[in-house]
Amino acid sequence: MANFHRAAAIVIGDEILSVKVRDTNGPFLIDRFRARGIHLDRILVVRDDVEEIAWAVGACRGRYAPIVTSGGIGPTHDDLTVEGVARGMGKAVVIHPELEARVRAHYGASMPPEALRLARVPEGATLLQTSETWFPVIRVEEIYLLPGIPKLFELHVAAIADRYQGAPFHLRCVYLSAGETAIASVLDRIARDHPAVALGSYPRMGDAPYRVKLTLEARAAEPVEKALADLLGRLDPGVVLEVE
Amino acid sequence: MANFHRAAAIVIGDEILSVKVRDTNGPFLIDRFRARGIHLDRILVVRDDVEEIAWAVGACRGRYAPIVTSGGIGPTHDDLTVEGVARGMGKAVVIHPELEARVRAHYGASMPPEALRLARVPEGATLLQTSETWFPVIRVEEIYLLPGIPKLFELHVAAIADRYQGAPFHLRCVYLSAGETAIASVLDRIARDHPAVALGSYPRMGDAPYRVKLTLEARAAEPVEKALADLLGRLDPGVVLEVE
């Protein structure tokens, strides 16, 4: 089990960037990874373009793990993820013999020649069979190439998350009737005195019954509870609507 | 009116990357920009972190315009967008005198000192008053700093889009009962013979009444119609379910 907890996602597809399709894979990944203690640090959404994919891979490789790509896996002209990932890593694109065998078995005698594009991988890639789908996840170093179709994407994510289990997150929330500016100096103090705790401040507009939601979060419960007690001791009790 | 059509968005916020809040600003931006002929090329979602924001700005500056940031504008410790954008551009953070005057007028005599953080801008920034909200958009070069709160974000986007009007997009769609592999060679040919047309191929799973949706798109109608006619001439008519 790799000792990494900070992940990145590269979402590939003109259809996402033109809102023909709304990306649900990014939020799904955040949610599932989070349940395993893996924090998604970056989501890069890029076009179906080899240079763009290569840029995104270069910007994340070696800094995040796992790196999950979504989309651009398939037999058509706009499926460029394998080529883009390979270029971003300075690797060649090669035919993976076992994957070729699977593709041939899947299509049988009626296989069109374009189907063999599905057997291309960045050099050095291995296959990860994560579910009942016939097509495996292509893995190269800490990068996992997943199809963009949400149903397939979701099938594969759990198995990847299993390999990178981290400590769970502890989260407390405080809802306030005061605005951000009024509490900014208290937040400064809490952020400075409790550096192990991620302190978030989110203003709400319109209909919400509170004005600001604060979040306190860390990988252990104790520092979160300490920061929460300190915070509540410094806030005017009249502005605290709810603690959860 | 600037002669740019390719935009980028930088979405800033730990709350997005932990799905405490689902990003709606990215999709909103795609949609509104698209209606004005501006294509969003990249969406980079990063943490509330000065280095991360600076990295994203450096990766987009000079290549895309407009560049819109979402989030991290406010008076609290986790509002780091001004500092991150400044660092990414190699600029200092300075107090903008007119913005300071607006902040003082807004808060009046009861202004806490932290409110003055709202008057900080990257050096060389100008203010863009785009709506009825008292707080303006901070603009520096082609980068526009917008608040993450969707209601405020949306109020500001239209005015930015007005400055970058491009030619509209023409889109045709073809729905097929065939799978991607079977039509890959036809798509190769269309993509090669009609390079001015963006040809997309999107497989559907499950309940959809088609197997593949094709999209043909360009900034002028004529090349799209030519590519569509060519495509329909090369596909088996039996697999074409609908053209729209």
Query: Measured on Cα atoms, how large is the radius of gyration of chain A?
Result: 22 Å
**Largest interface, Cβ cutoff 8 Å:** A-B, 61 and 60 residues
CATH superfamily of the largest domain in chain A: MoaB/Mog-like domain
Give the topology string of chain A: H per helix, E per strand: EHHEHEHEHEEEEHEHEEHE
In the CATH hierarchy, what is the class of the largest domain in chain A? Alpha Beta
Overall geometric form of chain A: elongated
Strand content of chain A: 15-25%
Gap from first CA to last CA of chain A: 33 Å
Give the strand order of the largest sheet of chain A, numbering strands 1, 2, ... along the chain.
2-1-3-8-7-6
Number of separate structural domains of chain A: 2
Low-confidence blocks of residues of chain A: none
Q: Any idea of the CATH topology of the largest domain in chain A?
A: Molybdenum Cofactor Biosythetic Enzyme, Chain A
Instruction: Output the number of helix runs of chain A.
Output: 8
Mean pLDDT of chain A: 90
